[in-house]
Amino acid sequence: MLTRRVIVCLDVLDGRVVKGVRFQGLRDVGEPAEMAERYEREGADEIVFLDISASREGRATFLDVVRRTAERLFVPLTVGGGVRTAEDGARVLRAGADKVSLNSAAVERPESIGELSARFGAQCVVASIDAALEDGAWRVHTHGGSKATGLEAIAWARECVRRGAGEILLTSIDRDGGRSGYDIELTRAAANAVDVPVIASGGAGTAAHVSQVLREANADAALLAGVLHDGLVALADIKSTLVRDGVAVRDTGAAPSPAH
Q1: What's the pLDDT at 197?
Q2: Which end of the chain lies in a sparser environment, N or C, as judged by fewer CB atoms within 10 Å?
């Protein structure tokens, strides 16, 4: 049975993990390497860093964070934000990341997916897609969900895979931050359309939500962020729920929270 993954996402700004709503009202929640190491210890199967720094100084700081974190992690580390060319990807991978994620850059210049895949292998390239339901169709948005592209999300996922992406990170803009559960229909449509792993993102509020998307939507992994940072659910509880529901997961040895 295929092992499903639980992935933790950390937004990094000027060397610190921050949390907000649609990148607004950001507040400092911790040091990236320490948080990544803690989440790994608690049962995370992978860590994703998203660089939301716009300045050149922020990019240098961010790569230093990637280096320090990679030295301490044993689980895979994916890095997104600011990767536009194969050379950008090379810098991130040299810093210790296992995969690079492209979102807006892939839409603006689809050739970048193939260039990265050809140089480093499809297993290193994650196509990140932010989708919202508009007039009965899921449409791709870029720049933190603020810019509509007109692209149909499922067709774009297929195109990303055709160009060399080895994984799809699919975020429901409609569900993001709402903690009412993942978009099962959207995730299932994408997972059934491509032959690479699909990571469900946006809407996690409980361990049951993670179990549902992995069981019902054919997702290979579920990504979480704020619900973990706020302590509303623990990774150990998620893993125990998945085991109870018959979902194959990596054994972490972490004990469930006594509060649950």
Answers
A1: 98
A2: N
CA–CA dist 16, 171 (Å, integer): 23
Alpha-carbon dihedral sign for residues 49, 260, 199, 20: negative
- CA atoms of 93 and 95, how far apart (whole Å): 5
- Catalytic choice (14, 45, 98, 130): 130
The architecture in CATH of the region 5-244 reads Alpha-Beta Barrel (3.20)
136-144 long-range contacts, Cβ below 8 Å, gap at least 24? 138/186, 138/189, 140/107, 141/173, 142/103, 142/104, 142/107, 142/108, 143/104, 144/22, 144/23
Q: Is the pLDDT of residue 23 over 60?
A: no
pTM as predicted: 0.93
Question: pLDDT: is 139 or 21 the higher one?
Answer: 139
Amino acid found at 231 = G
